[in-house]
Amino acid sequence: MSILAAGRAVRLRRRTVVTALLGALVVALFLLALVVGDRIYGLADVLRVVLGQDVPGASFTVGRLRLPRAILAVLIGAAFGMAGTLFQTMLRNPLASPDILGIGYGSSAAAVVAIGFFGAQGATVSVVAVVAGLAVAFLLYALSWRGGVQGSRLVLIGIALGTVLLAVIQWVLTRIEVYKAAEALRWLSGSLSSAFWGDLPPLALAMAVLTPAAFVLSRRLSVLQLGDDAAAALGVRPNSTRLLLVLVAVGLISVATAAAGPVAFVAFLAGPIAGRLLPGASLLLPAAFVGAILVLGADLVGSNLLFTTFPVGVVTGAIGAPYLLWLIARSNRNGGRL
Amino acid sequence: MTVHRSLVTEALTVGYDDRVVVQELTLAIPAGRISVIVGANACGKSTLLRAMARLLPPRSGAVLLDGRSIAERPTREVAKILGLLPQTPVAPDDIAVADLVARGRYPHRSFLRPWTQEDEAAVAEALRMTDVLDLADRSVDELSGGQRQRVWIAMALAQGTDVLLLDEPTTFLDVAHQIEVLDLLTDLNRQKGTTIVMVLHDLNLAARYADELFAVKDGRLYLSGAPADVVTAPMVRDVFGMDARIVADDVSGTPLVLPIGRHHSRV
Predict the structure, then answer these.
(1) Do A227 and B79 touch (CB under 8 A)?
(2) pLDDT at A335 over 60
(3) CATH number, domain at A163?
(4) Does A11 touch chain B (CB under 8 A)?
(5) How open is the CA angle B165-B171-B173, to the nearest 5 degrees?
(6) From the CA of B147, how many Å to the nearest CA of chain A?
(7) pLDDT tens profile A110-120
(8) Quick check: is A47 in a domain?
(9) B134 Cβ contact partners less than 8 Å away, ≥ 6 residues apart
(10) What is the ipTM of this complex?
């Protein structure tokens, strides 16, 4: 029994240490994002701004521009990371993240239509995006249902749906006035450049509800992972649990997409990276941290390190695409098993 | 410690989509004994077991646990009384043996009640009984088929139920490991009084290990009783569609089925 407790303690310590390091990296990148930019401010000035003191110059640049942008990056990164790992774990398939499945594109397509054809703005667009994300998720679920949902069928139908939705977005962009197209383009690749304080409360509020729900459900998910029959025998109802998981994960992905557009591949990458660092552990919290790290890091790179500034989604896309190709190449070698 | 539970099906009819698989089947599982369900492929024996574990809703009739319909009781409450090891459970990637077995404690835990001494003791006891304590920190992916099956049984034991259902617990195992698993389940039954119900393919092993044998044909109960009364040449012909000679098993004294195929016959 002491052997058992000792082994558990070793695994727990490793998980705690790695998760804490990931959390520390989030904080470090967050502060770096406040310090670095066209003009560099000292850490002391930045911290004083964060604490609400008035620092000439820094108060505007850091307080009004960089701080909301960095907070937005952390929130959407965490939301994408959690949503991705919930889907991937539930469907036992690394390809089954909501961005690959076209759910993010559902939000984008609806937002672009609302902006382009109906002149919608602000909160209306966000609500439309969230509702459309949910609608696409349920369409996907219904199309893949054959007395149960099988991972690879869902992935294939999801990719097809995503492609259709992408075509819708591009068609709309060719139809609408140029000034509207500029706003709609934000929905094509994720960007933090228009972040301002007003964006944050609805996102933060939605995440304050969805995040605890995700953590409560992740306990049931850990049982659902054992297969439907084993889960049902342990007192977890597979279908209603999956429905709740889909609602929470799509909610997370949609509110994040509504705030910053579909930041490519963050949902897709966060879970597998966390899984490499913490094999066999519950990945929800580490994946949230990895998601935040990816978005903060990609935005830092995209706005400072390259020859010109790139939106964050372009940088994460450049990281994610090779991983996607590698996964597909590997599945070819495994005889099609994804 | 173990409470004797009554598990009964009453005119149970179960099916998938438009196909009826189990028809008006009535049986009573003897408490504190080992029951084995046998029958030809696709006769409905696994479906019966899954319905008894509330995994499939009855079309008509009912499964009664302690006299109350299992479908109407809270599923978490049932999970503390009755466990099921499915035919092909899925092990999450890279999970350690002790962590997998710990998931069997799910029905006893809640968000506000984290890991307790009782949970720890149940997991340790389950690992010890199945002789996988030494493997506790290993990844399930690295184990052999026999070890893996013992780990799954450990998970079901950690659930701490008075009734344990197992769907073909010996499939994919060689004969030595089959005996090992069945001996282990017998230990569990004799030492703790756990009621065991399992589906087995091998009629000879079923006859050896069962206290009560249920022969199912076309979704109906054909015959039940002690193995010596159930395993007869006419039963094997009717239920399995095969001629056979029944002799006494020199080792156990239970009936032994010698199948008669089209070749090899000296009679």
Answers:
(1) no
(2) no
(3) 1.10.3470.10
(4) yes
(5) 120
(6) 17
(7) 988 988 888 87
(8) no
(9) none
(10) 0.92
